[in-house]
């Protein structure tokens, strides 16, 4: 029977190759069901078996048929699965939403304990190759229940930490002592790679919610946690060293070390008592109860004067020009957008920056205009101009979306709630905003002749369209001529 | 028949694994045709069927044979395809000309209308993995007929625009107005990513030819065009937004918007009237007809004083040290080489820069010396030194070639025409030129002992070879001893 | 029989898909051996064949069985190979030692002649994807026998050259002459990309050993050698140009050129006479015999004052802040560690830098603590904290190891010899050292409450562990309580 195997190999290879050239595959499949010589042969042989009784023959013929059916089913199934697979690939290539990340689907849980969790957004390039430019950024969300302790660790990544909700104490190990920093919502701080840190949720009732942007310094797009102090859970990094090494380094007998590294078993986020929380408060400066140590977060975006504000929304930016040198070195900007309910941002794009946006609060809607992400691009002749398709998503707290440079987009608050979005804008050097509606938009800034040529339409008519005095934020309402017909976006 | 499938699975997996270890595959294939027990069995069974007539038996035996042949054919075919596939891979690895790009073969047409075209050079890494270092540069050529309008768009890339031929007006949207710049041949300008721009060929007769070096800011090696103003062709990016959003943003009823975005249908490059051309001219400064607005291109390389010039050629360089800070930031230099007919550049290489060269005019010849690009490299033992092979190409206008750092090369003008080459030199920081012939070449700069040791030849003899007083450009003629025998390079 | 092929295709595709969804595969395999309808059918058919003699039937039944066994064997084999393959992949993913490079296994020989050899460490990413961050660094070791000449060449890479052992003369071609530099052990020098250089082992007896860190400027992770002057071996880069070009460029008849490029046949490293060695010595300054030209290496690390030193070890650092601007531009630091016999470095990690370490002399032991490199990481739910495993290796001269940032590690000298390690530290900007033992370690710097919480252990007990006054280097000895029981690390 070894030959059978060899022949099967031949067949297998033949089809592997056929598979590679899809054309051949297609051809074979077309004729697949039309005629089936094997079935004919099978039935013929049943008839030929002279020694068969009529009953034998029927059984034999039925076997032929069932074999045939079985195989057809396989072909069908294969075709279906093939198609599904193909569709998946297709989707991957032309993922309708390469820029929108769902809270449940696109995050993975790194840590989950009684006390809280750390969830990490998937690698941007796992979502889409189009996000290659921001491959080395990773977003993580830390959630900690009231009065919990997030145990000491360091990362092989620069960390930009933003306090979304709740009130934290951050402990950072510096040289020979621990610096303690109280954090309030809106506080942002840069933690250099490798710095051991711990976090306390100092609030007795409220959950603590932190966004952490990681910029790995070792392997691009990959960061790890290292628990220095710890035990069995979280496991201490020291547990990897042999006892000899540990004993020699720490000058402590094995028995004592075993006890030390065997105590901690509560996981990396756990509940602590009110007394412990108090004891962890900064003490340096005179202060009121419970935490009065001057906040040392590098800045608080909520308390900063907005860059732009009108009745429909507010934009606050903290960027390289504005403040700390680390923002410049990381080529980063933090922005906070608060869109009033029933209002919208203008249609606009960034020239250089990629926006990594996290919906903090409220509900709303997002639309991005994208050049088709099909295989159109470079290799094929496409005599005309590209076409654009809409990426849209309903926004709710916890969702993340990315807007690449050059791509016009718009965000709209729902009827009932303001929409609050916090953005890490990366590659922000030289960035400018260009708008399509409101004061100083692209169309109104074009000279009249170019306008007429571009639209093939009299410039007075074009001008009629693009005139409105507000900029950046507008009410989301139909033009007066159309009121009453307003539908949901 | 489900078992059959299971068994086939077993067989399939077995061979998949066999396939993985090529050795096993090799072994199996060797014995494949030698003896075929299945054929023997098949024929044996034909004979065994006692109830068969002689005719039945013949048919049966023929079936066995045809089965056998079918399978042999499959094996052959598979082997052939396998070999072809292998050869392809092989060719890919050792592409004889990874550095030369043909005007027809290696460009793809992004836009082609009555008015003109935009062609984009393939991604450098699509040509060869060796070009990975310049992956994020893309070269595009815009050609526009006399009196045409290239409609407004922006790119998600930094653009370095060089006016090769013809006379353009460039409109750049800045803040609240459009800046207009007249371009002449030799003008170069940097357009920051995201800036909306339009282009006019203001010449009544001559074609406009622009080279655009794109440096993508979003996805590495990939850039897109976004038509802000537009209609159906070019399609406006605004077309991707829902009517609600557009109506709310532009405060214009749907009907009016539909009309506006339905007019433009002429494509993205189209013919315009002389009056329109005039109306698009810069008007700021007093000027003569037809365009007198002061040229604001950052510089004109044709009007710059050459860095080096002799009777055989001329080299003009504009680099970071020389002029604008954006050249420094983009780590870029522009050079223009004009080699006199029957002349040549010296054999030389750049220490750091990669040269992306575009033949502007004339004909000539290129030779580059390359370390073998085979799999020689790192994994195998190759006890001796590398060997070098010649990459050569006949040059004509429209061709592009790349010269990586460290690789010695030479360009030669034809007998009848000067050879004009414009180069974007990238990664230019710290770059130096090293030559192998002419004044101060590598060999003549070596001390005599090293020279003798290197060539294993008396240094007087070596010195005899490398002495000539010219540098950079020479006549392309044989040494006096050899005149009359001159052949085509 | 063509149908058969088609059916096989169907089956093959079906299983390919089944394969993709491992679940399905698992299911199929479970039931594989349990019942085999095909065997039943086969045997049934043997019995049915009424015309068969009893002997025929036995043969037939035996064939069924042997077919069955054959297939089972295939399944087994396939399963085994599958497992092996899986294990391999597993190993690849979890390579137990992605950071340790053996002198024989992980280097390839680029050049090997009578006079010496050049060995190049494999690309870091070939060893492990985790090393992607240092992909563009390549380490080479040059070994040259006494009184040899390493013939002139240039590289398409920045080269940082470190003289490990022996005494060299380095010739660098600058503008119109050759600069000569004498090198002593500990000397380090930066050679800009493209600079032609030759090397002389000026010692009559001792071998010369140089480490060269290459930072490619053309294709990332890939560098090439170019022999300008040369002949047949090493082959001159000029050999790739056509005779016409060479004759025209060098103004020398072909015959003479052929002779010139035909002499050198000794390879790229060869023995030279004492007279030649003397003649290659620097001559500029008055000096004693044999070489007195002032050393111009940018610095000598062995003669620098150590950054830290105690009885157990010595650390010398030369970094961006310390000296030459090229270290800053290359973002590089050189360190030299000399650990006294029976001593160890503290357990510590770098915050930003990746250490590429070369064992120069002595023997010892290395341990690194690594977060598990399994597929754990991002996509799966792993409710608890990561676990760490030990990477360990016995060190001997010629071995290379890498320590990524954030990873705690320790090096220990053997009982008999000091351990001498030279390190290229890359990505060194902002780097800090954090220690787990000795003065100012992470644990002792934590405030007491955090310490107690982290270890779940009274802080007095924790403090008892981490108190020792030395820093950086300690004796490698068990705590006094445990002496006498000391085992090999």
From TrEMBL, chains A, B, C:
Superkingdom assignment: Eukaryota
Signal sequence bounds: 1-26
Biased composition (Acidic residues): 90-102
Gene Ontology cellular component annotations, sorted alphabetically: endoplasmic reticulum; protein storage vacuole
Extent of Basic and acidic residues compositional bias: 68-89
Region (Disordered): 68-102
Span of domain Cupin type-1: 99-258, 299-463
Pfam family, any one: Cupin_1
Alphabetically ordered keywords of this record: Signal
CDD domains per record: cupin_7S_vicilin-like_C, cupin_7S_vicilin-like_N
PANTHER family associated with the record: CUPINCIN, OS03G0336100 PROTEIN-RELATED
Name assigned to this protein: Sucrose-binding protein 2
Species: Glycine max
